[in-house]
Amino acid sequence: MGTMDAVTVRAMQALSFLMQKTPRGLRFEEIPKRVTKIRVPTSVGDVSCTIYRPPVWSPLPPPVYVNFHGGGFVFRHPEADDHICRYIAAHAQCVVVNVDYDVAPQRAFPVAATQAYDVTVWVTRHGEAQGWDGSRVAVGGHSAGGNLAAGVCLSARDRGEPSPLLQILDYPPLDLTVDPGDKRARTDKPLLTPGMGRLFDSSYVPDASRRADPLVSPLLADDLTGLAPALVITAEYDILRDEGDAYADALAAAGVPVTHRMVEGVDHAFTHRGPVEPAIETIALMATSLSAAFVPSASRPRP
C-alpha cells in the first residue's frame, strides 16, 4: 500500500462519521434497546462488543447471533448496525453480540479475521456466565463483515469449534484476488466504486499474494463441505454481486444448505441505506432465518 493511499484511507476514516445516516424508516425506533458493553479477549488483543438482549424476558437462556459490521475493513462503525441488531434481538428472540473488530491499515489481515473467530469461540464457551445459550450460536455480517463471518465458518469447520447453526452473508466481498475494476456493475454509478474497492483491498491485505488465502477470499477455498447452513444476500447493482452469487452456488454444490436471495433494484449497503421496503424485507428474512436455525433439532418438525 502506497503512502498516499494510506493517507487517503486515514482521511476517509476521520470523515466516515458523516456517512452514518440510517433512513428514518429503518431506525426501528419502536423497538426497545437493551444494551451493555463488554471486552472480549482474543489472541491479538481485546475486542469491545456491544451486547443486545431481547426486549422480552425469557426463563431460558436465549441463543446468540454474532454480528460483524461492514466498512471495507477500514471503517470502524459497529453502531451502523444498531438497527439490524435491535431488530434481530427482538424478532429472533436472541442475544446479539456486535463486534468492534480492529480495522486496517492500522491492523491489517489477519487481525480482524482472527478476532472474529476468537470472539465467536469465546461466545460459545462463556454462555452460562453471560446468560445466553452458547450451544446455539450463529454468525453473520454485512459487506466486509460478511467476509469475516464466512471466514469464521471455514475456521470453525477446520478447527472443530464452534459449530454455527447459520451464517448470514449480506452482500459480502468473497474474492479479493480480482481487481475491483474487473467486477461487473449493473448500474452506471455503483455505490462501491473500483477505486474504493482497491483502497479497501490494499489496506486490508497489502501483500497481493496473500489475497488468495481462503480467509481473505472464501470463494477460492478448495473445499466448502461441512460448513454451516447459509443465508446469502446479494444486491442486483452491487459490483460484489457475482462473487456472492457464485459462493451461494458453490456452497449448494458442496452440499451446504443455502438460501440465496438476490434483491432486485438495490445496490451495495441497501440494508443500511435503503430503499426502505426491500431493506426491511431482507432484515426480516435474517430474523426469521435465525429463528428457524435456533430451534433445537429435537423440536424441529420432520419433513
Question: Distance N terminus to C terminus?
Answer: 53 Å
Give the structural class: alpha/beta
CATH architecture assignment name: 3-Layer(aba) Sandwich
Low-confidence segments, ≥5 residues, pLDDT <50?
none
Question: CATH class, please?
Answer: Alpha Beta
Structure, briefly:
The chain is built from nine helices and eight strands. The protein has 303 residues and is of the alpha/beta class. It has a single domain (3-12, 25-295), classed as Rossmann fold (3-Layer(aba) Sandwich).
Written description of the protein model:
The protein is of the alpha/beta class. The chain has a single domain (3-12, 25-295), classed as Rossmann fold (3-Layer(aba) Sandwich), CATH 3.40.50.1820. Helix content is 35%, strand content 15%. It is built from nine helices and eight strands. Strands 1-2-4-3-5-6-7-8 form an eight-stranded mixed β-sheet, with helices on both faces. It is globular, with a radius of gyration of 18 Å. The termini are far apart. The model has no long low-confidence stretch (mean pLDDT 94).
